[in-house]
Design a protein that fits this description.
By secondary structure, this protein is of the alpha/beta class. The longest helix is centred in the middle third of the chain and has 17 residues. This is Phosphopantetheine adenylyltransferase.
């Protein structure tokens, strides 16, 4: 069984994230969306909120599960018996960072492979930080995030 992990902060989950989840779920038998609890960041949503939102967004995808993790990604993969890391590229500027991370993960565990999916053009401008900023100032984020994310954002900014 091929198990992949799509890791990220998902603060919040965007249409770009959801697109990568849907597309990568077709490439593996099981996809685990790994929500990173990064102590170095100050997220808008708690780890529980991010996990719950992603569970709601993926509830109709039979081979997708959502879990949180902290620490090294390769350790999370071992825990989940996964061997594939899924990453998304928005632009050429993502390549250098993603290459470095992929090579680091491989050096930590050479049984791990990283596959990268190119973000669809309509989502190439998206980032969670852009979504948060637009939402914070009352802008329309309906072309950036799923409706469920908008509900979560409205509760945060009330």
């Amino acid at each position: 069984m091929k198990i992949g992990v799509y890791p990220g902060s998902f603060d919040p989950a965007t249409l770009g994230h959801l697109d990568i989840i849907k597309r990568s779920a077709k490439l593996v038998d099981k996809l685990i969306v790994g929500v990173l609890h990064n102590r170095a960041k100050n997220p808008l949503f708690t780890i529980e909120e991010r996990v719950n939102l992603l569970k709601e967004l993926t509830e109709d995808m039979g081979n997708v599960e959502v879990d949180s993790f902290s620490g090294l990604l390769v350790d999370f993969l071992k825990e989940k018996n996964a061997e594939i890391i899924v990453r998304g590229f928005r632009a050429v500027s993502d390549f250098e960072y993603e290459l470095q991370i992929a090579q680091t993960n491989y050096s930590l565990d050479n049984s791990v492979e990283t596959i990268c999916l190119i973000t669809r053009v309509e989502y190439s401008f998206l980032s969670a930080s852009v979504v948060k900023e637009v939402a914070m100032y009352g802008g329309d984020i309906s072309n950036m995030v799923p409706e469920k994310t908008i509900e979560y954002m409205k509760r945060k900014f009330q």
